[in-house]
Amino acid sequence: MESTTSPHVLPAACDFTVFGGTGDLALRKLLPALYHRDLEGQLPADHRVLGVSTSDLDDAGWRDAVRAALTTYVAAEQLLTPVVDRFLARLRHLRLDAEDPEDWDRLHALLKDRAHPEDAVRVFYLAVAPRLFGSICQRLDEIGVVDERARVVLEKPIGHDLASAREVNDAVGRVFGEAQIFRIDHYLGKESVQNLLVTRFANTFLEPLWNSQWVDHVQITVSETVGVGGRGAYYDHAGALRDMVQNHLLQLLCLVAMEPPTYVGRETVRDEKVKVLRALRPMTPADVDRDTVRGRYDVGLVDGAPVPSYAEDLGHGGSRTETFVALKTEVQNWRWAGVPFYLRTGKRMDRRVSEIVVVFKEPPHSMFPGAEGATAPNRLHILVQPDEGMRLHLTAKEPGPGGYRLRPVSLDLSYAAAFDARLPDAYERLLMDVIKGNPTLFMRRDEVEAAWTWTEPILRRWASSPARPRRYPAGTTGPTAAAMLLERDGRTWQEPDQ
Prior knowledge:
Layout lengths: L12 E7 L4 H16 L6 E8 L5 H15 L7 H9 L1 E5 L5 H12 L8 E6 L6 H10 L7 E5 L7 H12 L7 E3 L7 H11 L13 E9 L8 H26 L10 H12 L5 H7 E7 L1 E3 L2 E3 L2 H5 L9 E7 L9 E7 L6 E8 L18 E7 L3 E9 L8 E9 H5 L6 H11 L8 H20 L5 E4 L6 H8 L11
Parallel strand pairs: 1-2, 1-4, 2-3, 4-5, 5-6, 7-12, 8-17
Antiparallel strand pairs: 7-13, 8-11, 9-10, 11-12, 13-14, 14-15, 15-16
Helix pairs in contact: 1-2, 1-13, 5-6, 6-14, 8-9, 8-14, 9-14
């Protein structure tokens, strides 16, 4: 049995190697996240960040690129010159041709060039295409830098279907043990997502209501105002279902629906999430036709400015790829049987928001005959982004004499306002967990494969169907069929301003 005492401590020495060190993810997210942790004094004292890429940069050139990135992505008041200089001094860059053995030998020499290299934790962050995961891991093993203190971080997507996910997992698993593999989903590092566990399991008032007796339905929405931008080539191969539903939205669903673990530990949470994925109602072709909607954005207005269609962003009009998905599913277990879960995600929507809404059932009996005003079901809104927090919608009596006038009101919790502190970016928390060896917020192999097992029937049905994604104007909430998905059940999507 896993110990309830956390073994996750900060190592004395660490080499954090980023493959793809000059890429967008590294410069926009990873390096700023590590800088913020250095600013807070949380990185190991003996810590290096090694950038590996095909760019012909020396250490000074990469440091200049990272300095520019910090200036862009870190708030000015957080850029303290002594800390910036200290952080940049940690950086080294290595140009590496994957096919050149001498380049790999240079990486080996760089990692060994420290006092007591056998005591340093080595983190290998693969911010590269998934097709390279296996070959990079094999090379790392061949040059002798993988030991029991080594860890590898895999960015999504882990494959594009179940078979390819297994191939990736097998290839990486031949080198690293499962406990050394950290499959990252940055949504799980967000404050509000983690606070969902605390809200559910550290408070007594919700858990008795968190079941089919009192919950009418659950909605999970992740909408973006941006289009595909420079990711068109990748996105047209993936689509919204692979890019967002199979990982981000299903992970959020798991945290809402999971059973209480004995305690929040490295495997207990992941054990419960896998159970949820395996309990999802399998999607038959008829289910897919009835309970899924796919769409693609057309020209429209976002924030008052005209934006092009997906076909224009892509450069051609022959694609059948979806940029929007709405679907209905159910967790078939004792707690949730009969409760629909509605999932929705899309690009070029009317607003950028990620939100979980738990809608409770109406009271079983109306006790205020003749009351003025309308009542609405109680709802718990869990705001994931951009403004992390929670909002509980209740019905209250409007002050004044002369009978009952009922009005919906809300109890709001804004993390920024309540705690009066900067909220760390999700990557900051997750990268520190990797360094400490805490896998709780990362996906295990069986989680990834269970998610693909559930998703694949939808992909197969869409591929065999002659129907094309429904058009929706950019700057809207998606195709009208998505609204009808709920309306036929007598429900509506809960928008953020409701």
